[in-house]
Backbone:
């Protein structure tokens, strides 16, 4: 019986994410993602510890450990304070729910990586100046990675993206997604 | 090697299910990861699921949450003093060779400075156990396609 249930659950391709239908669990997931980003940054700073973080923030090590191990009730102010303490900035990103996804929240690491790949644009002008914009079927705007393949993208007579030659390694990571859905918008 | 009668239970509802999955190997007294996972509080469970989700999404850490062991196919998910040891396994080498599983096996409570050596040996034994491979294959079958290909070559 258990085996049958296991097979059944496994066969559902669009199994809902564990946070689905529970704002509390979604908050925990987002808080955990925030802490994971902080921990990853701390791990990249040689010799930097939670103790150093506590000193910079002006709280006890115990308080930092408590927050990092159980981040459920993080205030927005605290997220800013902790982020600034590791010399980073914070953005809150609102993005559309993917109709074909399982509702899993997308990590801030993914958004940050896209921003890095896009050459760290500071505003919409930077994006317009440096990218070939494109819209997706979900209508969620332009591709911030466009600058990577600005000079190599090819379109058909309907302005549909048909191919591009990646200029650096990052572009190839994103290529399958864009090739299928992207539509070139002429900025010139 | 003795063929253990064990089963594999995937954790449903994680992210990027088309790329990676995590699940429990169960059915032997040594395989206590699932049992210990069920004992966690709701908060702890969600924190561990978040770590598993990051692994499924292709992230490399933070190392305080999960990491591989160099030169092996073994890994660990960490939550405070909890250690959930697993091995990485490609269950569909023919039909979906990129798909990667993290097969959770044993749980240990330990501190940061304690060695993982003894646990890693045990996990590696399970990784090579034919019963464990069969249990995973029941959930992730190649539908015979892999076997046919191999036979046609011989």
Residues:
């Amino acid at each position: 019986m258990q085996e049958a249930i296991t097979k059944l659950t496994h066969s559902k391709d669009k199994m809902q994410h564990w946070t689905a239908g529970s704002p509390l669990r979604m908050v925990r997931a987002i808080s955990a993602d925030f802490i994971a980003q902080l921990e990853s940054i701390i791990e990249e700073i040689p010799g930097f510890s939670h103790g150093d973080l506590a000193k910079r923030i002006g709280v006890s090590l115990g308080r930092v450990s408590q927050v990092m191990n159980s981040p459920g009730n993080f205030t927005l102010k605290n997220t800013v304070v902790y982020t600034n303490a590791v010399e980073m900035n914070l953005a809150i990103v609102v993005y559309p729910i993917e109709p074909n996804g399982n509702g899993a929240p997308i990590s801030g690491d993914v958004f940050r990586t896209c921003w890095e790949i896009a050459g760290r644009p500071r505003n919409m002008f930077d994006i317009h100046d440096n990218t070939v914009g494109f819209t997706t079927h979900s209508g969620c705007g332009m591709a911030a990675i466009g600058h990577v393949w600005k000079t190599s993208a090819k379109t058909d007579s309907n302005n549909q993206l048909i191919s591009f030659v990646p200029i650096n390694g990052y572009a190839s990571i994103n290529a399958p997604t864009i090739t299928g859905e992207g539509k070139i918008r002429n900025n010139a | 090697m003795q063929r253990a009668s064990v089963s594999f239970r995937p954790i449903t509802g994680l992210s990027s299910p088309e790329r990676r999955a995590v699940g429990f190997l169960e059915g032997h007294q040594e395989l206590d990861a699932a049992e210990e996972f069920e004992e966690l509080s709701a908060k702890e469970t969600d924190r561990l699921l978040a770590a598993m989700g990051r692994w499924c999404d292709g992230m490399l850490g933070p190392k305080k949450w999960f990491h591989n062991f160099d030169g092996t196919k073994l890994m660990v998910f960490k939550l405070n003093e909890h250690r959930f040891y697993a091995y990485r396994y490609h269950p569909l080498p023919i039909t979906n060779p990129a798909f990667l599983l993290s097969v959770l096996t044993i749980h240990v409570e330990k501190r940061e400075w304690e060695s993982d050596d003894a646990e890693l040996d045990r996990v590696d034994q399970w990784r090579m156990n034919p019963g464990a491979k069969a249990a995973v294959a029941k959930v992730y079958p190649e539908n015979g396609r892999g076997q046919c290909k191999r036979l046609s070559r011989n």
Notes: The domain at 7-153 of chain B is CATH 3.30.2310.20 (YaeB-like fold). Chain B has one domain: 7-153.
